[in-house]
TrEMBL record:
Keywords on record: Isomerase, Rotamase
Top-rank taxon, per record: Bacteria
SUPFAM superfamilies reported for this sequence: FKBP-like (SSF54534)
Matches recorded under InterPro entries: PPIase_dom_sf (IPR046357), PPIase_PpiC (IPR000297), PpiC/parvulin_rotamase (IPR052204)
EC number of the protein: 5.2.1.8
Domain PpiC stretches: 1-90
An example Gene Ontology molecular-function term: peptidyl-prolyl cis-trans isomerase activity
Protein known as: peptidylprolyl isomerase
Organism encoding this protein: Acinetobacter albensis
Length: 93
């Protein structure tokens, strides 16, 4: 079964997600931003979700994790929980 090592940041609105993405792209530490802003419990761990198996996350996020490029920052991606920034560290088959 396919799986991936992923970290993410979840916020309530797209504007904040875009601002945080710019900060990370400018060099601010992903984990620091996650701890300060993410509304997901994973925020306390710097956004680390650990190993995710295909089908484990909500539809739009699951699709992104298993189709978008590895080692890049993606988002904002909308789900029923809010707006996500995703970093797919790597995937395994």
């Amino acid at each position: 079964m396919k799986s991936a090592i992923v970290r993410h940041i979840l916020v309530k609105n797209k504007e904040l997600a875009e601002q945080l993405k710019k900060k990370i792209q400018a060099g601010t530490d992903f984990a620091k931003i996650a701890k300060q802003h993410s509304t997901c419990p994973s925020g306390k761990k710097g956004g680390e979700l650990g190993e995710i198996k295909k089908g484990q996350l909500v539809g739009s996020i699951d699709k992104a994790v298993f189709t978008l490029a590895e080692r890049e920052l993606h988002g904002p991606i909308k789900s029923q929980f809010g707006w996500h920034l995703l970093e797919i560290k790597f995937r395994m088959d």
